[in-house]
Each structure stands twice: as C-alpha cells, then as structure tokens.
Amino acid sequence: MAREGVGAEAIEKKGWLKAHRWLIFRRISQIGILALFLAGTVGGVWIVKGNLASSLTLDVLPLTDPHVLLQAILAGVKPHKEAIIGVVLVVAFYMLVGGRVYCSWVCPVNMVTDAASWLRRKFGIRSTSQISRSTRYWVLGLTFLLPLITGSIVWELFNPVSMMFRGIVFGMGMAWIIILGVFVFDLFVTKEGWCGRVCPVGAFYSLVGAKSLVRVVADRRSECDDCMDCFAVCPESQVIKPALKGAGKGIGPVILSSNCTNCGRCIDVCAEEVFRFGTRFSKEKGDGINTEGSLGKKRAAEKPSANAA
C-alpha cells in the first residue's frame, strides 16, 4: 500500500488510536484545564479560581506562573506569600517533567498553532521567511525590561495565551484578532513561527526545565527507517537529530534539548516505535547501533514504493 502522507504508515501499523494516543491525551489535558476554570464562571462550581497566571484549586492549592511573577516584581509589586508558594510548586513540577510541557499540555494557543501546522503539511504550504529560534529569548528579555521601564506588566496586555484564556472563559472580543494573527503567522509566514521562534513564555519554560527528568528517548533508534515523519511533525525538529542519529558520535538516545516540548508527536507518528517517554538516564535498547542509517535505508528499500498501487 502506498504511503498517503505523514503518519499514514504509523496508522496502518499501529491503528488510529495508538498513532494519535499522545495527541488525544494532550487535547484532554488542554481542554480539561480550561473546563475546570469554565466550571466556575459558567456552572458556578468553583474547583479552580483565577487564571493561568495565578490560580487557587479547591481553595487550598495555589499555583503561580513564575514568568508573570518575575515581571510583577520587576514592576515593583511585592508578592504575597501564596504567590511565592505557587511559584515554588510550579517550578518544581516543570523542573521534573520538562518546562515546555506547559507549551504542549497546558497552553490553549497550542491548539491554534497545531491546526496551522497541520494545514501547512496537508496543503504543502511553503514560506521563504525564516525567523531565528533565538528570537524568543530576545523577546523574553524584553518582557523583563519593560516592567523596569514602565512599572507595569506590559507583556500581559498582548500575551496571546492570556488573551485566549480570557476570551474562552469570559468571551473572546478583540482577542479573536490576536489569535487569528497567530494562526495566519504560523500558516503563511513561517513554520512554527509563534511557539518555536517568538513566544517568550516557551523560552522561559525551556530554561526552567533545562535539567528535567522526564524526556523523550529514541531507545530503538537502530530501527529507524529514515521516513522523516518525526521531523515533519515535531515543532522543534532540530532537537531530534542528535538523539536519533548521534550513535556514531557517541551521543546517547535521550533528547536532552530543553526546547523539546515532550508533546509525544514523534512517538505517535513513528511506525517503527523508535521513540518513547523515559528519563534523562535512559539507555538504548538492543545491541545494534545504526550509525550510518544503512539499516534504515535497507528497510526503506524493502517497503512498497510510494508509486505502487
């Protein structure tokens, strides 16, 4: 059977559910978090009060976005004890599971940028504009500089994450324009433009989770058939190659880059089940190491041609 596109072989070999398992879990997480907030404003059931920047769960558990609190402190705000406790809890969690898990498992804007990425692949949209991935760190620095100059948390006035959350919970209003702008930017201007190149929130959490324990591991990399599907779907595709193809250079199979979002896309889309979730101490399975991709090329040659009926 001919391959019909990215992930088609994974669906054929693993079934639709298993080939979308982590995507489904991520959507449940993202929508579930929004539902907890909506339960109060819509149904009067106040499980969680507040917003993504600062919340209180069951009137007991405070959670505070460290990026927002740092901006507030630089603006001259003296934080309350609950806010500090909330930051400690959030930082500890993301230092364990990976800071950019926030981007793929919590942030509602991720659903918008995922849709743009899917449409780019489906319709073969290409763009010549390229923005350096380091730009997000410059923008991050700006979010800390502006409070010092203005005495206010300027970034939160324009932050698409905050605007989308407020729009969903309290009514979209003008937030639609910002969200639509992010969608169009990712669809037509540059691939993974917002989350991968501009957003300072993702940049901040990449620093928080730089040494996190939970990682994606290519521990069956010798089974890789060089289909490139993982590179096609990964929002930070540059993080894959060292772990997947670095055996000949003595590089381990763990994706150690702090910019990995632990989204599980590579796990879902891989028909050979090369990837899985593990820890930063995980080892490679099997004795054979595919250092030159020869095994992958051999397997690829044995597969039916894409032009076959």
What does this structure look like?
The protein is mostly helical and about 300 residues long. The chain is built from 15 helices and five strands. The strands form two sheets. A three-stranded antiparallel β-sheet has the order 1-2-3. Strands 4-5 form a two-stranded antiparallel sheet. A hairpin with a 3-residue loop joins strand 1 (about 50) and strand 2. Helix 2 (about 20-45) packs across helix 8 (about 160-170) and helix 8 packs across helix 9. The longest helix has 23 residues, at about 20-45. It is globular and about 55 Å long.
What string, H for helix and E for strand, traces the elements in order? HHEEEHHHHHHHHHEHHHEH
* Terminal residue distance: 7 Å
Coarse structural class: mainly alpha
Radius of gyration: 21 Å
The 3D shape can be described as: globular
Major sheet strand order: 1-2-3
Number of helices: 15
Biggest sheet: strands, sense, closure? 3 strands, antiparallel
Unreliable segments (pLDDT under 50, ≥5 consecutive)?
A: 287-301, 303-309
Number of DSSP strand runs: 5
Mean pLDDT: 90
Tell me the fraction of residues in β-strands, as a range: 5-15%
Helix content: 40-55%
